[in-house]
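Hi, here's the filled form for the chain we discussed.

Project: internal
Contact: R.S.
Residues: 389
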Amino acid sequence: MKEVVDGATLRPEELDEAVTRLLDFIAGVDRDGWYSGLEVVRPWSDHNPRITGEFARPDAVRWYLRRELMTLLRRGAAVTARPSRRALTFADPDFFGALDEDRSDLRAKKLFLFGPERMALSIDRLSHYCGTPAESFQRHILFTNYSMHVEEFQRRFTDTEGPGRDGVQMPAWHHRTPAGDGVSLVNIGVGPANAKTITDHLAVLRPDTMIMIGHCGGLRNHQNIGDFVLATSYLRADKVLDDVLPATVPVLPNHRLNTFLLDALDARDAKYRVGVVCTTANRNWEFNQGATLAAIKAARGVAIDMESATVAANGFRYRIPNATLLAVSDKPLHASPKLSTKAMAFYQASKREHLSIALSCLDRVRTEYPDGLPHDDIRAPDEPLFGAK
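And the returned structure, exactly as it came back:
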């Protein structure tokens, strides 16, 4: 049982129906309890003409698979879909070992960044942590720490889909579009552990963008409560990814996202600074100031938070264009710590503009790069076939 499509024999008007046939076939394989296998033969490739891979829960990444397969078939590749092997249950003793991302064969190019076991677990955990099905997530992801951004998101998009139960750890809301190029907003709470957890799992869905729109402590004299900070790089003192991505590896936001955010700030005549965002795992770093202040001084930091560098580092690891637009909620070095009454007044005044700037940026991405932002700067030498723009 298999489905074969040879792009070299297709007329342009036949492409869409052929890809739909492939996607429907692998979805049926998944429903029958198998991992679906794809084989891609590229006659133009001398070194990797035949590449294979397996998928779990393909409906969760259907839009992404459609885009990648359309590109390959348009170039003349031949694609074969078939059942690969019986899907492992989460209780299977072999499941745990199959999750290891560090296993690789440097002799062969991969089709996809993740194995089917990793996909299945992350898709299940997204539903657990966010309270919505993985299929609801859109191609553009915003992260926040505060329910006020959720309220503004719901006010702006009256058709928003949210969690179906109470007590969700990192609730998500989605403004869905037929093409999947809408926006999902996730309230990740506070801290780098949550930021790592959610981006680990969202990575299997291959979003086009991730933007952090949280709050920060302003570190410079000429900043006021409510000013914005656009990160140009990060001081990674969050520690949670050091074992898999050493802090010596440079991590930068996506240049095009930053350009679009900068244009949106300027269009609104908003007050902002660009520079290094310092991300710490210690919410009470002020109680032991020496090491943190020395690092801030050396890095020329303009703001401090607890999530931005974590999101950016995982975006780098998993090849997802990302950026950070923060709002100054306190100035710990200038006798203006985060206090309840001041913070609440600032939150209410800033939430609409903050979200509006981020959404304006995503509107430009959607218009100017409908097939996703170029991301050559975060591609790896052993980049998998899918996602290699």
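Let me know if anything looks off before we file it.
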